[in-house]
Every structure is written in C-alpha cells, then in structure tokens.
Amino acid sequence: MEVDKGKGEAEETRKVAEADRDTVTLKSSDGKLFEVSKEAAARLSTVLAGMIAGGSIDDNGTDLKQIGSEALENVVDYCNKHANSIPSAALISSSISFNTAPFKEPEEWERKFVDRLSHDALFDLVEAANFLGMERLLDVTCHKISEMMKGKSPDQIREVFNIKNDYTKEELEEIRQELAWAFYDD
Amino acid sequence: MSDFVSRQEQTSPAKLADMPGDHWTEIFLHLPPQPHILLRVSHVCRSWRRLTADPGFLRSFRARHNDTPPLAGVFHNICYEGARRFTPITGDGEDPLPLRRGFTCPAHWHVFDSRHGRVLFHALAHGAAPPVLILWDPVTRRCEKIGMPPDWAVYYNYDGKLGGSVVCMAGDDADGRHGDCRSGPFMVVLMIGREPRAMVSVYSSEDGGGWNKAISFDGLPMWAEVVPKPCVVIGDTLYQAVSGSNTLAFDLRSSSFTMVPNPPETKWMDVQIVRVDGGRLGLVVANNVEFSLQLWVWKGADDWVQRWRVRLDTLKPLSATAQPGVVDLGAVNLIGACDYGNAIFLWTRLGSFMLQLDTMELKELSYDSTMTSGSLYPYESFFAPVQVSTIPS
C-alpha cells in the first residue's frame, strides 16, 4: 500500500478512512497524512493500540507532533511490511521485559529495511519507535546502529558518529590502562 | 578522514546532539558481549563512559546475554621470558584483534586456572623467592598474593604434578548460571596425586583468608594420576581428571572424595571434563584410533549415556585437509573447556581449534607463534568500566 497521500489528497484519505475502518490515519509534525492498517498499528505500537482502544483516533488524521514526515513514512512502511511478512510468535509477544529479553536477530526484510536508511533517518526512527512504543522497530533500529560500532576502534567509532573526544589527557591515560594487557589496539 | 568513513555517511552533528542518553543505552544493549567491544565504546567519550559504567545498564547488558560471561580469549603456558600468554578470541564475523602488546608475565609464573573472572598463577620458586600463588582480576586490575599452605612440605613427598583451581563460593543458580561474583568470597584448591594417594589443600578468602589442613585420599586406583588440567565445578563438587578410567570428585563442603568410574569404553583415552546442560557432569573423550570424539553424560553411580559420537575428519575445516594422502591428522589432544560457553579446545597437527558442543562448529584459533599445545585456560568475563573520579556518574 502506498501511503504518503500528501496534503492535496487529505480529503480523499479521510473518506477512505471513514469508509474502511481497517485503517487509521496518522498526521506528522509537518502536517502530512499517512494511512496504516489498524491491525498492524495496534499490534506493533503500544501507544497506537492504546489510542485505538481508547477511541482517541482522529479520522481526519491523528496528530503525532513529535514525528516528522520522513520518520512517520518509515514507521508506516515498517508496519505495512510487517503486516505482509509472516509474523513469528517471538516478534509479537509484548509481555517480555524489554531490556532483558534475548534479542531475536532481524529477519531478512527487516535488515533490508534499515540498511537503506541514512544515519539521520535511522536516528529519527529510533526516536519515533520509542515515542510510539514500537518495541520491535526500536530493537531493529538500535541493533543496526550497534552494528556500525563492530570491529572499530574508539577513533573510528567517533568518526562514524561524529563524536568529539572530550576526555582530558589524564582521564585518557587512566582508561587506557583498562584491559590494556589483552585488548588495547587503538 | 580515514578511508573507511569517507565511504559511509556520517551522522550529522545536530542529530547527534538530539539523541538522548536513553537511546544510546538502548543501542549499547545490542552490542555483542565480548569485553573488548564495550571497552572500546566506553573509550569514545565521557558521556558514553557514564552510560556504560552505569550499574543498571551493566545488569541489563548481562541479562541480555543470558548472564553467561562471554569468552574473551585463552591463557596458556609457554614459559619463556617475553612470551605472550593470552590469545584473544573474537566473535563471529570479526577480524582477529591485532596483538600489539599482548599479555606477558615472568617465565616462572604458570597459569593454574581461570574461572569466574579470576586468574590463578603459580609462581615457582625463583632464586631466593619461595613459591607463591598469585590471584589476578584483569578487569579491576586487582592482584593478590597467597602464600603456599603452611603444611606445604608434605607435598614434596608426592610424585605427580601440582594443579590448582580458583572457585567462587557464590555457586550457580538453578539454571547453571553464575552471575557477577567479582568481589565475592572464593576458594583456592590445590591438588596433587598419584596412586594410591591424592592430597588437597583448600584456601578460603573468608575471615581474612587461610588454608585448611591438607586432606589426603588413599583411593586412587592402580596407575592413576591426577591430571593437572583445570577442574570443572558443578554445584559443590569439583571434578578433576585422573589418568586411566576415573574422574575424581571432591566435595567442597564436606571435604570428601569420591571416585567416579568413567565409561568402560573410554579407558585410557584422552578425556576433557565438561559441564553439560547447565549443571551435569559430561566427558568429551578422544578416540585416536578412529579419530572421533564422543560426549558422555553422567547419570549417577556408574551410569553413563553416550550423547553423540563424531568423526573429526567429517567436520569443517578439518574435513578438507583430511582426504587420504593429503595430511595425516595424527592424534587429537583435548586441551581445555569453557566453563560456561559449552565449548572445548582441541589440538591437532593442523592447529588449535575450538569446538562448539551444541552446533559442532569448529573454529580455528588464530594466534601467534607462541601458542602452546598444552592446556588452554579460557577467560570468560563481561567488561565493566571502572569509575573515573573526574567523570561524574
């Protein structure tokens, strides 16, 4: 399903949403409307599930002021792709504690989904997933970012993420002693 | 800018400044458990150090990895001055770490054991210095000397090779996991033995630390000798390999010995004791006539069940070189086992390998020329950044 209807098509979107209660319409901070399957939204986002159950979904477009259109497009895209893939039981169980549950490796389509994103889009998506309570999407995006650190020295990690080394000379001297006997290769 | 970043996109500075610490914490939870990875991340900047040193984060990080400390590498005994004594083992898909420094120690120090994040050395008598035990925590960099037992002289009357173990007193949980015990009380167990007698001395760190009187056991069968390989501790019992066809069990609470007869089929074969299913005694046995390995699981008394048997020349990468006429693989030596990682180490003429016991995956250990064919002492530990006084937590 192509989702970005743009402002011009808002009226039509509203009609479609009214006629077909299987979808919900979401509005980005910059006013763009996106349509997503109600079932997928409720299953993948605890926040949207709560809004749907509580009747606070606006048929003219539920305002998500914290999420820009690019990130929201990715969220909706993810929901749709997820709805089209065969969901495995582990992915949709939401009762497990988020921090400690063993992470299930991304599926092929999830990997492709995050691989095509720019750094900034990826970070935006982390924030959107966090805001919407989308545990799996948060996991997949965070996992992707963590993989960017793999096999890299602190210097290389700083370059990738554009981070300034703010250690003082003395601190650096102190931390360089850590595991220096075995691992220090910077 | 280095080559490798110019090929990728960098994060824009504004985006980065917006990222709350919570999100970085989420991201760090996805890092692999090997200590060098969190170490490098904690060296990136002060705020990342604060996040990775947070006790709550470290608890979640360990839980994410099933509270099973990862294998960081292996210690070994090549005892000449300047020899590297530690070989890091990286995770899958990662390049081997460059070993610019590598751990070295005096040539008269022998690694005895590496368990629960602690490393035990036996410093042999050297010049005027008497022998001493050295206990080292590589993460906290704490090092302590433990004198040999006061009745140490009795050991001189025994033939055989001295072995030693360091055992955490905290024990395992119901699932066979150990948790973070770094600062907890521990025991050091010294053992020596040749038919008919085995001797054991136990040091406890509690109450200021001290040795118990040496305990002897006169039940070693004919030809039996205590093999100075690292023991395996399951529950309160320490299992030590004995040459021949037995395993010596020493109960750490009651200080009593039992002989566990090995499966009769495995007599005189090379044996590696392993912990299976989180808390069961297992034996990996090398049959060098048919070049196979077998895993036996102990069900109590003399009841052993063979769980699997595999010909080594059917496993990659050994299979490629094991074609007739290519290379004679000769014998295989079993040279160690992970405490928690469900893997053993073996040595063949082609090199040293780690064998994952659940997947039967063989991984060649990449090492420099100083690697030994003697025992390997796996170092399994999570990394925890030390608090730096100038960085507020």
From TrEMBL, chain A:
Residues 23-84 form the SKP1 component POZ domain. Keywords: Ubl conjugation pathway. Residues 136-182 form the SKP1 component dimerisation domain. The keyword Protease does not apply. Pathway: Protein modification; protein ubiquitination. Residues 1-21 are annotated as: Disordered. Coiled coil: none annotated. The keyword Coiled coil does not apply. GO terms for biological process: jasmonic acid mediated signaling pathway; protein ubiquitination; ubiquitin-dependent protein catabolic process. InterPro entries: SKP1, SKP1-like, SKP1-like_dim_sf, SKP1/BTB/POZ_sf, Skp1_comp_dimer, Skp1_comp_POZ. SMART domains: Skp1. Gene3D superfamilies: Potassium Channel Kv1.1, Chain A. It comes from the Eukaryota. Involved in ubiquitination and subsequent proteasomal degradation of target proteins. Together with CUL1, RBX1 and a F-box protein, it forms a SCF E3 ubiquitin ligase complex. The functional specificity of this complex depends on the type of F-box protein. In the SCF complex, it serves as an adapter that links the F-box protein to CUL1. Part of a SCF (SKP1-cullin-F-box) protein ligase complex. Belongs to the SKP1 family. This is SKP1-like protein. It comes from Digitaria exilis. The lineage of its organism: Eukaryota, Viridiplantae, Streptophyta, Embryophyta, Tracheophyta.
Automatic annotation (TrEMBL), chain B:
It comes from the Eukaryota. Residues 186-378 form the F-box protein AT5G49610-like beta-propeller domain. SUPFAM superfamilies: F-box domain (SSF81383). Residues 20-57 form the F-box domain. Signal peptide: none annotated. It holds the Pfam family F-box-like. InterPro entries: AT5G49610-like_b-prop, F-box-like_dom_sf, F-box_dom. PANTHER family: F-BOX DOMAIN CONTAINING PROTEIN, EXPRESSED, OS07G0120400 PROTEIN. This is F-box domain-containing protein. It comes from Digitaria exilis. The lineage of its organism: Eukaryota, Viridiplantae, Streptophyta, Embryophyta, Tracheophyta.
